[in-house]
Structures are given as C-alpha cells and as structure tokens.
Design goal:
This protein folds into two domains: about 160 residues, Rossmann fold (3-Layer(aba) Sandwich); about 200 residues, Rossmann fold. The chain contains 14 helices and 17 strands. Helix 11 links the parallel strand 15 and strand 16. The longest helix has 15 residues.
C-alpha cells in the first residue's frame, strides 16, 4: 500500500495546512519534562513553514472528556514548541469557531499557529461529522504526523482525511516505513523480543507474532507464566497462573507456524524487589520457593544474543527484566547493546517501541543506534497485534 508524503506537496505557499501532531507530553508545574514527541514533529513543521505554508497545528492533551479543562490547555505547550523550533508559535484559545478563524486569517505565509486541545470538544473522539467539518473549514490540506494517535478514529486523526487532501508528515512516514521493514515485508530471519509484566495485556500481540516471526523471545514477568505452564515452580515471581492454558495455546500456535519460542534457561533471583538487593543466578528449574526472578541470567542472555546474531530483522517490545532497578537491568542492556552493534554494522534492521521499551533503550544508551525507536505506545502495540489503524488506513486510501 502507498500513501502521499510531503514530497508530493508542491506550491503550498499561502495554503492553510492542518497538521495533526502529538503534543501529549509529560509536564510538571506547567513545564514540559520530556520533549521527545515535540522534537519528532519539528521536521514536518519546519519544512511546511519554509515552503511558505500557513501551518496550523492540531493536537490533544490529557483526557478532558469533551469539556474545556484549564490545566489541559495547550497554551503552555505552545511555548515549549516555540522554544524547540526557535520560531514564534501563535496560539488560538479555540479549535473551531470565530477565534480560531480570526487567528488563522491573521497568519502570514510560513507562520505557525497551535489551536486549542481538540479533545475539549465532544465531537472529536466521536469523529462527529459536524465537528470534523468545522475543523476542515480551517484548512486547505491535511497532514497527519501523529502515528501515536493513529489507532483512534477521531475527527483530527481520521475524519479530516475525508474532507481534505491528506498526506503523511515526516514522522508518520518514518514510522510507517520502519514498520513495513519490521513486520510488513521484513528480511528474514525475523526475531521478536517481547517482555514486560503480564501476558494478559499482550495475548493478541503474541498470537499475531507467532504467525509472522521465526523466533519469539519472551522475557520479563511474562516468561514466568509460560514457565509455570510447563510445570516449573517460579517461586514468588510475578506470574499469571490462571493463564497457563493460554500460554500453552500460544506455544501450540507457534509450533504449528514454525516459530521457535525462546524462554529463559536461567534467572537472577532475589528475595526483595529493591535496588542492590542480594541476588543469585539459578537454573530456571531450581528457583527457590521464597525468591522471585527479576532478570534473565547469563546463559539466557547468550541464547537471546545468538538469535539476534542470526536475525536480519528484530522487533522489540518490553524489557527482559526489571531494568529500572540495578542490577536487574543487565539482560536488557546486554541484548540492546548487541542489537545496536549489529544494526550499526548494517547486518540488522531493528525496530523497537511500546510501553517501557523507549525508556529501556534510553537506559541502555542505544536509542539512537537502532533503526527506529517508536514513541507511539498504544498505536505501536496495536500495529504489532495486526489490528487496523484508522489514521493510517485512511492515508493509504487517500
């Protein structure tokens, strides 16, 4: 499938371009504490501005449930965008109506305007035709650069593409191209690493992956559920014992699809879940009844890295252990560094994202060395699950 990008946009000087961006960034005391998502959309905003477009930004912030909420206004975010762009960013206190129209009418070519939180309006999340039409009246062209909101069929993510010529921004383009390399049309062998706490949150993901990858590495608390399903005593480890049958079903589906499931063969155990807790490495069949597995052990790291060495494509979601607390970050860091080295050598296409994965890759110091690290969260997971993403599908149709 194909989609139009900014390369297809010509002669846009003076055109009103509605750009859906993700500015749902963490803040404290009105200040942005992590500007990663803002930094990701800078190339699109800057390119449109330099081409002389009147750039009108659409975004949501928080969950105001269709009502104006003062502390969920995008006005403070406008200042952060302005600082990062090093360019004036105007702000309109409404997303539709007279105040928005007046602010847009006052724009000069190349200027940038941020409209107020689209989720202050009940019609946004309902993809209401009347609200969508009101938004569309503000622009001549629609550019979607918010892959992280593409799993929602909202007015500003999907509806607008029915009313205006629609294009993917640079971040959306990079994300879709990376995902196509990851699972759409990957080079084989394909290895997926899936970690995190609970199988229950990733059943659809695991069932989709076993049909698409050559090997599926399962780590984190999720691995304990699979081990317990095989009759292994995991002590006091985090484990969803009630999902043993689900784990066995996934294992059977993997075998039927020719996918190898890779589980830990040793683990790092401790009696306390705290930094620097006394710990030891044990064989997975010898977990003490009063201990919990908090990371995979050195033999398991070697086995995972062996699969990464065989792979031409790696898709990664979730840490292998409790990486937030030393020394239980060793496996995640070791495998991440090996994947980064293989990627930098040109031998591996590596795509990571969702949940704690971005934090884990940053902790390992490899976020800039992998092929692509997605900050999209829910949308990345739904893509991995094989679910349709309305904000992406409409770009393909457009």
């Amino acid at each position: 499938m194909t989609f139009k990008t900014l390369d297809d946009l010509t002669d846009i000087a003076g055109k009103r371009v509605l750009v859906r961006v993700d500015l749902n960034v963490p803040t404290k005391d009105g200040k942005v504490t992590d500007a990663t998502r803002i930094e990701r959309v800078v190339p699109t905003i800057r390119e449109l501005s330099e081409k002389g477009a009147k750039v009108i930004l659409l975004a949501h912030f928080g969950r105001p449930k269709g009502e104006p909420v003062a502390d969920m206004s995008l006005k403070p975010i406008a200042a952060a965008v302005e600082d990062i762009l090093d360019q004036r960013v105007h702000f309109a206190p409404e997303a539709t109506g007279d105040k928005a129209a007046s602010a847009i009418a006052a724009l000069q070519n190349g200027e940038i305007l941020l409209l107020e939180n689209t989720r202050f309006y009940k019609g946004e999340e309902k993809n209401d035709p009347a609200f969508t039409q009101a938004l569309a009246a503000n622009g001549d062209i629609f550019v979607n650069d918010a892959f992280s909101a593409a799993h929602r069929a909202h007015s500003s993510t999907e509806g607008l593409a029915h009313h205006l010529p629609a294009y993917a921004g640079r971040t959306m383009q990079a994300e879709l191209e990376a995902l196509e390399k990851g699972l759409g049309n990957p080079k084989r062998p394909v290895v997926a690493i899936v970690g995190g706490a609970k199988v229950s949150t990733k059943i659809d993901l695991l069932k989709n992956l076993v049909k698409k990858v050559d090997a599926l590495v399962i780590g984190g608390g999720m691995a304990n559920t699979f081990l317990a399903a095989q009759g292994i005593d995991v002590g006091k480890s985090l484990c969803e014992h009630d999902l043993a049958e689900t784990a066995r079903e996934i294992d059977a589906e993997a075998k039927a699809s020719g996918c190898t499931i890779v589980l830990p063969v040793d683990g790092v155990v401790a009696r306390e879940f705290k930094a620097g807790a006394e710990n030891e490495v044990v064989e997975i069949a010898a977990i003490p009844s009063d201990a919990m597995v908090l990371d995979v052990g050195p033999k398991s790291i070697a086995a995972v890295n062996e699969w990464v060495s065989k792979a031409e494509t790696l898709v990664w979601n979730g840490p292998l252990g409790a990486f937030e607390i030393a020394p239980f970050d060793k496996a995640t860091v070791a495998v991440a560094k090996h994947a980064a080295a293989r990627t930098k050598s040109g031998a591996l296409t590596s795509v990571a994202g969702g949940g704690d994965t971005v934090s884990a890759m940053n902790h390992a110091g490899v976020a800039d060395d992998l092929t692509y690290v997605s900050t999209a969260g829910g949308a990345f997971l739904e893509w991995m699950e094989g679910k349709p993403l309305p904000g992406v599908d409409i770009l393909h149709k457009a």
